[in-house]
Amino acid sequence: MDFSSQTVIVSGAASGMGLLFSQRFVQAGGQVVMADQNAAEVRRQADLINRSYKERAVASGCDIRDYNQVSAVARLAIMTFGHIDVLINFAGGAETRIWGVSDREFPDVPIEVYDWGIDVNLKGQLHFAHAVLGQMRRQQHGVILNIGSITGEEGCATNVAYAAAKSGAMYGLTRSLAKYGATCGVRCCCLSPGPVLTRPGMRNMKTALGRAARPEEIVNMALYIVSQEGAFLDGVNILMDGGRNILNNRD
């Protein structure tokens, strides 16, 4: 796939699949604006990319719950590269795990934990879409790729906000943005992984294929969706879960 002269904004770009996507996009000819709440690490990773691909990566610390910070990332992309061709929303996370309260039942988890889960996993994706769509409308082209999760299909007894937010991103947000984007040449899709080997606990999640995904498998699909090869995909959620949904829906 060829992304020559294209610019992507990647949230959650300091590590994991966000970082891998950033590296692969640049290797395929593109330019990347890397955003992450870990400002020092995302800038370090951008510097590493630029050692091999000079001036093709810029980075910014960004709390995706803060729209002003998100808007600043979009402005950085335009100021540096002149256009925004792709947005991919990798930033997110399961709230009770990140807050260290995964051993508690839903009514016993502080409500601010769930507020955080909604803000990061749904509002953060909406914030970025809003911040880039004005530029994409002016260009009359662009692609937005939201990131969902198998948990958005299954639900979760503890990570209730994560499940609700991912479900909202997979369907309501993605379809709504696709409907608007159709008026100005912008596609919007969602990619929803099952377990991915980004941390050890993912190995324990069952799938029909008997394993978790390798990060590069998810990234390869993301690259396909935002490329010209995937140009007829719009308004859809692609569930890439190794058949976990089949296990959950057996008669």
Task: Tell me about this structure.
- By secondary structure, this protein is an alpha/beta fold.
- It has one domain: Rossmann fold, CATH 3.40.50.
- It has helices at residues 16-27, 39-52, 67-81, 95-98, 111-139, 151-154, 160-181, 215-226, 244-248; strands at residues 7-11, 31-36, 57-61, 86-89, 142-147, 186-193, 237-240.
- It has a 7-stranded parallel β-sheet, sandwiched between helices.
- It is globular, with a radius of gyration of 17 Å.
Jot down its keywords.
47% helix; 251 residues; alpha/beta; 9 helices; seven-stranded parallel sheet
Layout of secondary structure:
Elements: E1 7-11, H1 16-27, E2 31-36, H2 39-52, E3 57-61, H3 67-81, E4 86-89, H4 95-98, H5 111-139, E5 142-147, H6 151-154, H7 160-181, E6 186-193, H8 215-226, E7 237-240, H9 244-248
Parallel strand pairs: 1-2, 1-4, 2-3, 4-5, 5-6, 6-7
Task: Write a brief structural summary.
This protein is α/β, with parallel strands linked by helices and 251 residues long. It has helices at 16-27, 39-52, 67-81, 95-98, 111-139, 151-154, 160-181, 215-226, 244-248, and strands at residues 7-11, 31-36, 57-61, 86-89, 142-147, 186-193, 237-240. Strand 1, helix 1 (16-27) and strand 2 form a beta-alpha-beta unit.
